């Protein structure tokens, strides 16, 4: 090759090499095109209805590197944004992403019930940006460090939203402080126990002694203990059901097997233990959280009394207790079976009152799926069918649709579904549209109505078993951002599942 030719070729080769270097360098990183449906790390969201801790504002949320850079009230000029990329949502609601502290994703071991991919896709489509996975119905239950590692392995590259994990408090580990500390050191956000049979062989029920031991260990970590508060009672009504006197296809028959007195008795036992959580108590620093309260009468009064005397205690309820009443459940419709059960209409109204008045602290889905065969939909036997309401994708529109009758506000929604759940789980950078927080945001239209029918895309593994199928709801989710990534928009998900596992430090 002559000298002149070399001078002509070398610059071309150099340019080609630079191009290849740039291509390899940029494509070797996780691409925002894969994790997010917008190719920007820095951008601004504007709306006339941004839900902040100080109230609803018209303004803008500036996002950079997955965090909220600033929240601006009033007119926003795109010239302020160095990226020049502004997403204007008009009148749509821009709210902190929902945090669901009570969801069963069932993987590993029962991914045919629900898995990380299907469950987190459903969550993203419903505006949920963080899930805390319950330690049961997966195989094995998350009662050991090894079981937690299996969870983490199953979740890797399969989660579209952030996912944290509760560990299990069971008789096997309750008196083994080393085992519990190992589980907490491995990163579970707290512990969960049942005071009645869970239906899962490797997750047996605990009693007050087990719970007391668990609280003493948790005190050092300042993490909560979540409790399913029902205890079994011997009564004439439950015995008559067992003897076949009542019709198993009738929901009233199932109600007799789990009366409100089961919740009341469990909570009375728990409140003897929560005395230790007060200032100066032997378990100070620990916290007890009662999951899915359904009894709005004596059980709730007991919780109010405990709060007033200084016990460290919170309580949640679920949308299905606020949407449905026992009177409307038809014979054989086992989609509505759950534990505790859905109670009467007056009880439902009182739950709404307690939620609005702050006596019930927060909401959770208790998304508890299974395969259709275990729901016994053809047989309609409430006593034998698997219990649990499949609801993950629907909880935001359900809460809004049924809550409007009770005059709920957007700020209340954010409190029940974002702020207080974040505090319970110790998620200090989540739960509010605040500078410095993760850019976890849901955008939704409160006036947009839709019917949950065959034309509505559901991402749950088995959507046909949901009690909400056939309902008309208001509140369509338009977009969901997780740590700044646009993971869901207009019925589509990002190409890659880039949610992060959350482990406590």
TrEMBL record:
Cofactor: Zn(2+)
Listed transmembrane segments: none
Pfam family, one: Amidohydro_1
Pathway: Nitrogen metabolism; (S)-allantoin degradation; allantoate from (S)-allantoin: step 1/1
Keyword Zinc in record: yes
GO biological process terms on file: allantoin catabolic process; purine nucleobase catabolic process
EC numbers for this chain: 3.5.2.5
Domain Allantoinase composite span(s) in chain numbering: 38-92
Domain Amidohydrolase-related: 93-487
Organism domain of life: Eukaryota
Function comment: Catalyzes the conversion of allantoin (5-ureidohydantoin) to allantoate by hydrolytic cleavage of the five-member hydantoin ring. Catalyzes the first step of the ureide allantoin degradation followed by the sequential activity of AAH, UGLYAH and UAH which allows a complete purine breakdown without the intermediate generation of urea.
Family to which this protein belongs: Belongs to the metallo-dependent hydrolases superfamily. Allantoinase family.
Subunit comment: Homotetramer.
Record protein name field: allantoinase
Natural source organism: Stephania cephalantha
């Amino acid at each position: 090759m002559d000298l002149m030719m070399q001078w002509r070729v070398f610059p071309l080769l150099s340019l080609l090499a630079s191009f290849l270097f740039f291509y390899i360098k940029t494509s070797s990183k996780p691409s925002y095109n894969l994790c997010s449906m917008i190719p920007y790390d820095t951008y601004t969201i504007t709306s006339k209805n941004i839900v902040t801790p100080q109230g609803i504002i018209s303004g803008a949320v500036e996002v950079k590197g997955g965090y909220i850079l600033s929240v601006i009230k009033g007119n926003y000029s795109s010239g302020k944004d160095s990226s020049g990329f502004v997403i204007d949502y008009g009148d749509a609601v821009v709210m902190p992403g929902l945090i669901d502290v009570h969801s069963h994703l069932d993987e590993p071991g029962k991914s045919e019930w629900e898995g990380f991919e299907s469950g987190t896709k459903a969550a993203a489509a419903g505006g949920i940006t963080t899930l805390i996975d319950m330690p049961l119905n997966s195989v094995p239950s998350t009662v050991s460090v090894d079981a937690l590692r299996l969870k983490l392995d199953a979740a890797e590259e399969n989660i579209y939203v952030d996912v944290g994990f509760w560990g299990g408090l069971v008789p096997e580990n309750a008196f083994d402080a080393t085992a519990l500390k190992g589980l907490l050191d491995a990163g579970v956000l707290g512990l969960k126990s049942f005071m009645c049979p869970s239906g899962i062989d490797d997750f047996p029920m605990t009693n007050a002694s087990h719970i007391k031991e668990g609280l003493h260990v948790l005190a050092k970590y300042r993490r909560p203990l979540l409790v399913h508060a029902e205890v079994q009672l011997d009564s004439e009504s439950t015995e008559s059901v067992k003897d076949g006197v009542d019709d198993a296809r009738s929901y009233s028959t199932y109600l007799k097997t789990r009366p409100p007195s089961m919740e009341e008795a469990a909570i009375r036992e728990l409140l003897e233990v929560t005395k230790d959580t007060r200032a100066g108590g032997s378990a100070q620093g620990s916290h007890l959280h009662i999951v899915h309260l359904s009894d709005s009468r004596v059980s709730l009064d007991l919780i109010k009394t405990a709060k007033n005397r200084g016990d460290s205690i919170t309580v949640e309820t679920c949308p299905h207790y606020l949407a449905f009443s026992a009177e409307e459940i038809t014979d054989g419709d086992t989609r509505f079976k759950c534990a505790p059960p859905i109670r009467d209409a007056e009880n439902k109204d009182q739950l709404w009152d307690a939620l609005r008045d702050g006596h019930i602290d927060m909401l959770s889905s208790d998304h508890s799926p299974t395969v259709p065969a275990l729901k016994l939909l053809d047989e309609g036997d409430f006593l034998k069918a698997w219990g649990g309401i499949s609801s993950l994708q629907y909880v935001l529109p359900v809460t809004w649709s049924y809550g409007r009758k009770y005059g709920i506000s957007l700020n209340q929604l954010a409190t029940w579904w974002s702020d207080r759940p974040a505090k319970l789980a110790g998620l200090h950078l989540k739960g509010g549209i605040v500078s410095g927080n993760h850019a976890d945001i849901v955008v939704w239209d409160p006036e947009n109505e839709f019917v949950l029918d065959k034309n509505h895309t559901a991402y749950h593994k088995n959507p046909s078993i949901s009690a909400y199928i056939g309902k008309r709801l208001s509140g369509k989710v338009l977009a969901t951002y997780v740590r700044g990534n646009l993971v869901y928009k207009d019925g589509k998900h990002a190409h890659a599942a880039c949610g992060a596992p959350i482990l406590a430090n």
